[in-house]
Amino acid sequence: MAWYWQTLISVAAALALLWIVLVVALLVLKPGTVPLKEALRLLPDLLRLLRRLAADPTLPRGVRIRLGLLMAYLAMPFDLIPDFVPVLGYADDAIVVIAALRSVVRRAGLDSVRRHWPGTDDGFAVLCRVAGLNR
């Protein structure tokens, strides 16, 4: 029975360490140059962009799989960091989306993202700034 408790404590410690590493990574990687209000206005256009990119058969299969996994992650009821944690609770979703967009741009090209962008040119410029994409 002692091995059960040792295993349980080891798993709990590993999860706590992983959570701390993720929190530190989120603090380091968070986009700080764009106001939150401006970034939140992108949300409807960003969701349409993700859907359009995932449905585009001309993009590589790996890109579409990444986008499908991203949308599944966003639909999950739980997060890496719970939403009740101030600032970081919602930042984890934003950072996961940014990382996925950067991966898509590296693989499919910025022109593909621009072609599917449903919003305005100003909105695309904000998206590029938030995601750190080169225009």
Automatic annotation (TrEMBL):
Pfam families hit by this protein: DUF1232 (PF06803)
Domain DUF1232: 64-98
Bilayer topology term: Multi-pass membrane protein
Superkingdom of origin: Bacteria
Keywords annotated in UniProt: Membrane, Transmembrane, Transmembrane helix
Record bears the keyword Cytoplasm: no
Transmembrane stretches, start-end: 6-29
Keyword presence, Nuclease: no
Compartment annotation: Endomembrane system
Alphabetical list of InterPro entries matching this protein: DUF1232
Protein name per UniProt: DUF1232 domain-containing protein
